[in-house]
Amino acid sequence: MSTRAPLTRFRGVLLGALVFVAALAIWEAWARSAESFYFPPVSEIGREALDVWPSADFLTAVGASVKRLAAGYAIGATAGVSIGLAMGSSRRVRSTLGPTTEFLRALPVIAVVPIAISLLDDGDTMRIAVIAFGVFFPVLVATVAGVCGVPPEIRDTAALFHLGKVERTIRVYLPAALPTIFAGLRTALSIGLVLVVIAEFTGTGDGLGVYIWTQRFLFDVQAMYAGILFLGLLGYVLNGLLLVLERRVLAWHYGAIGEPVH
Amino acid sequence: MAERVGRDSQARVLREHGLLRRANIAGVLFALAFLLVAEACVRLFDLSDSVAAPADTAGALFEGISDGSLAGEVETTLVTYVQGLALAAVIGVLLGIAIGSSRTVESASSVVIEFLRPIPAVALIPLAIFWFGLGTPMLRFLVAYAAVWPILVHTVYGVRGVDRVLHDVAATSGVTGAARITRVSVPAALPSIATGIRISAALALAVCVTGEYFVGTEGIGHYMQDHAAAYRLPELYAAAALTGLLGLAIDVALRSAERRVLFWAGEERVRPR
Fold first, then answer.
1. Structural domain boundaries of chain A?
2. B210 and A108 in contact by Cβ < 8 A?
3. Which of B11, B35, B95, B215 is spaced 20 to 30 A from B131 at the CA atom?
4. Residue A8 has pLDDT above 70, yes or no
5. Rama region for B64: left / alpha / beta (φ>0; ψ in -120 to 50; rest)
């Protein structure tokens, strides 16, 4: 990718944008002639989006969702990294917890939602718990893989310096596993966003998921499109932010291997 | 001999998967202890209003399977799931080959794909209801939409990552044009495509059950929703556990199929331990 000349790359982006615009134009023309209630013209969706997005109701809903996501993500990721470090650095812990985590990981989160509702009632606690549950596993798996993948030279060096178990884990294994952990964190972020929506589709309250779900009963198709578009945009922006953080935190790593590996 | 090799590789699959890691006694004991503690807590503190005891869950699971109520739902779910996944595989692989082997197609499709990909399938449920109604076609669409992305991305990487030498060898052997794609790119990309399908298979099951939960009239997801609404917790837990087991079984099956079909790719793909 990076070996391509800037001009051809620019042309590539231009071509991509042109195809995108053409697709929108075809949609627009088709929607205008077909006048389907469920496929409104792009221009109307755009107008609705610009109308809805800055409104106070919508922003409050987004704020509530983002807050839940942040809380659930923080809890799930912290737990995932901590338990992952323990499982990664000790074979005994790994084999003891292995089967149980393997089974829990296979549960689809939608199965966890009604269970969480019966445990924690329908509220913020339930939603945050569901998000944390879903975020936990990708982070856990990535952390275990990262720690298990630490090269033997590094392990031996740490042993040579007589580092204690805890110190070795935190000062050697954790940094060495960070690139892998970040990959897990990014997977977890997109999963977290999906879970916000799932947890908000069920039950009442505020949030982006509730907003989208409500439009269904109001038959406000444009607003539904606007809500879903915003969700996609939110995912895109959050992922971008995480990438920026990753480049910062892992600057040493990329310095060592040459360039970012995506 | 061949049978023994097959059994060995099966054992390796299970072991790598973490279920039978060399007769993992500690792991099994921990899981049992976990269940026992849960059972004891539910009985001692009378929590059966908010948690289903493991014994009751096992009973509900056994009953649901033996009287066919749960087994029937599983069948419905699996049919929808396989259809959606197959659709995604066909679209994802074809599109992935086109994108992976042509820079022009890659550039042309890039913005549209980057626009669609971040939209979570589950968020499309309310729209998909409008588009397809409340039946199976809508679930099929959801499953296919969710599953197509990992397959597409892995196919693109696989096709693009083909060793140049392979193409050169093919060219000197007179393999050019379309044959270059079918006889060099696709076989070389198969391991990557298989990984994509495996990732999608897990994702698609979750999306299928989620779709059924919100809008379905049948399937495991609907079964869960039904019992959750009626507050019959053992049945709910049983369905959840069964879905988890189903996901594990599908993953193990795909892994072992992958090893059997793509045995030649084994060397490069030995995972670090």
1. 44-257
2. yes
3. B95
4. yes
5. alpha
- Chain B: closest CA distance from residue A162 (Å): 24
Residue B107 to residue A190, Cβ atoms within 8 A: no
For residue A100, which of A110, A90, A113, A87 has the smallest C-alpha distance?
A: A87
CB contacts < 8 A (A, B): 165
Tens-place pLDDT, residues A146-161: 888 888 888 888 888 8
Mutate to test the interface with B, among A69, A110, A193, A194 (most CBs of B within 10 A): A110
What's CA B155's distance to the chain center, in Å? Answer: 16
* pTM as predicted: 0.81
Under the banding of pLDDT at 50, 70 and 90, the label for residue B96 is very high
Q: Does domain A44-257 have CATH number 1.10.3720.10?
A: yes
Q: What is the ipTM metric for this complex?
A: 0.78
State the distance between the two ends of chain B, measured CA to CA, in whole angstroms: 28
Give the residue among B244, B255, B228 at the shortest CA–CA distance from B31. B244
- Looking at residue B26, its pLDDT comes to 82
Domains, chain B, ranges and CATH? 1-49 (no CATH), 52-269 (1.10.3720.10)
**Torsion over CA of A113, A115, A117 and A118, rounded to 10 degrees?**
170
- Top pLDDT among B230 and A69 is at A69
Eight-class DSSP state of B162: S
* Chain segment B186-202, per-residue pLDDT in tens: 888 888 898 889 889 98
Which structure tokens are listed for A52?
A: 């809805």
